[in-house]
Write a structure and sequence with these properties.
Blueprint: E1 11-17, E2 20-21, E3 27-33, E4 36-42, E5 50-57, E6 62-71, H1 100-111, E7 122-124, E8 135-143, E9 147-150, H2 170-182, E10 187-196, E11 207-216, H3 219-228, E12 235-242, E13 249-252, E14 256-259, E15 265-268, H4 278-296, E16 307-310, H5 318-321, E17 329-332, H6 335-347, E18 353-356, E19 370-373, H7 381-389, E20 394-399, H8 402-414, E21 417-425, E22 435-442
Parallel strand pairs: 4-6, 7-21, 11-12, 16-17, 16-19, 17-18, 19-20
Antiparallel strand pairs: 1-5, 2-3, 3-4, 5-6, 8-9, 8-10, 10-11, 12-13, 14-15, 20-22, 21-22
């Protein structure tokens, strides 16, 4: 018989000690309530904090917010941003930077299967922490007389009004602030993607924007956007897609570029996926290229051998892999991204077979030596299962979620793979998200 719950919520608990952090960035503590040991997830907690916590609901786990810090953790600092306790954009800004490498490693270790050997992760620290995000997704709310472009609050659909954002690169922050004024008179909600524009723009590098909007845009908005992309404007270009309209309204030159691993411009899909930090992305791509070169050197095909890249996007990693591959095949489901991948490779005189298809269902040819995959947050379970039936000697897995990576590591271990190395890249400074590059080798102890 189930024991009735005698605990009333919400309530306040004192003397709660945070024992660690969980995927998603929250702290975790364990308390006794009504004779039952319960876990509480606490936003903005640090390991070894002693806290007064407001417990919100009777869920599993419980959720809580900090009412007071009784004894701060040695890993805690005063945040440089006054909005850090409310804004959902930077969930680890309260943690000292020297404490974060071990915390990223602990999140990965906690998600790793216990029966699978795990190498010690190597950490690659961000070279710039604040004002470093060169790609961001923000929410838009317009209420007629005013409009706001901002991040959501922590675990909330409400936007956090911000006169400044310390995370965004200056061109993106200028665009965020100005677009609120541009959208005056409109009513509705939307999503805004901001990226950097052309690398060699003659007037200096500016932001490009992609706005999806549900509601009614004021007619004056389009006149203001024309001015925003002018010689003195804050945008290089913008694409506006209103609900119910098939094609976006284009103003200016809404072409996004990043500096690729080789220092040359790399075209990126408008409003599509790219890493949050341009400089961090170059370090990540260079690392993947060095892995491909080192693995090829182990074989008689050196310096080149057959490579298949899944979830290839617009060729961010493809241009790093192609110089070390014989018969590179890239697979991506988004046609706009594969078209840009073709241009990015051709601009460098590189060749690859570019396939527009579902990467999760793609059947690689026998003789493939290296499989490189950079899947979305949900991971690539179908690819891992296919490797059981159709193995390749080497797999390089670029993961943004430690839980998905841990799940796939278990599948690959069962197929005879050993994880040879783990490298974590701080591509999202001030957040709980790190990008992990895992190298799996088949048949090695």
């Amino acid at each position: 018989m189930r024991r009735p719950n005698s605990v009333k919520y919400p309530q306040t608990l004192r003397g709660v000690t945070c024992s660690g952090l969980v995927p998603g960035g929250a702290g975790v503590a364990h308390v006794e309530l009504a004779g039952e040991r319960r876990a509480i997830f606490i936003d903005r907690a640090a390991p070894d904090d002693r806290l007064t916590v407001h417990v919100e609901t009777n869920g599993r786990p419980l959720r809580g917010t900090i009412e007071a810090i009784e004894e701060p953790s040695p890993a805690r600092r005063l945040t440089p941003c006054s909005l850090a306790d409310r804004c959902g954009g930077c969930d680890w800004m309260h943690l000292l930077p020297p404490a974060r490498p071990s915390l990223y490693g602990e999140l990965l270790s906690d998600a790793w299967p216990r029966d699978v050997p795990m190498p010690e992760p190597r950490f690659h620290e961000a070279t710039q922490r604040l004002r470093s995000r060169t790609h961001a997704r923000l929410a838009v709310e317009a209420h007629g007389a005013s409009a706001m472009v901002a991040f959501h609050g922590t675990r909330s659909h409400k936007l956090v009004a911000a006169e400044h954002c310390l995370a965004l690169a200056p061109p993106l922050e200028s665009a965020r602030l100005a677009l609120g004024d541009v959208l005056r008179g409109s009513r509705g909600q939307g999503q805004l993607v901001l990226s950097l524009g052309r690398v060699a723009h003659e007037e200096g590098r500016r932001a490009v924007a992609h706005l999806r909007f549900r509601g009614s845009l004021a007619r004056e908005v389009f006149t203001r956007l024309e001015a925003a992309v002018g010689p003195r404007g804050f945008l290089q270009g913008i694409a506006v897609l209103e609900e119910g309209v098939d094609r976006p309204f284009l103003v200016g030159d809404p072409v996004a570029e990043i500096v690729g691993v080789d220092g040359a411009p790399l075209l990126m899909p408008l409003g599509g996926f790219q890493q949050a930090s341009e400089t961090g992305n170059r370090a990540l791509a260079a690392h993947v290229a060095s892995i491909a070169a080192a693995l090829a050197a182990r074989h008689r095909e050196a310096p080149k051998f057959p490579v298949v890249e899944l979830y290839a996007g617009a060729g961010n990693l493809s241009v790093a892999l192609a110089p070390h591959a014989r018969g590179l095949v890239t697979v991506e489901s988004a046609a706009d991204a594969t078209a840009l991948a073709q241009k990015n490779l051709q601009a460098r005189g590189l060749k690859a077979k570019i396939v527009t298809a579902d990467a999760g269902a793609f059947a690689w040819e026998k003789g493939t030596r290296l499989l490189v995959l950079d899947p979305p947050r949900e991971g690539a379970p179908s690819v891992a299962k296919r490797l059981v039936e159709h193995p390749v000697p080497y797999v390089v897995y670029v993961a943004c979620d430690p839980v998905s990576l841990g799940r796939e590591a278990a599948t690959l271990h069962g197929a005879g793979y050993t994880c040879e190395s783990l490298d974590q890249f701080e591509l999202f400074p001030e957040t709980s998200h790190a990008e992990t590059v895992a190298v799996f080798v088949r048949g090695r102890a």
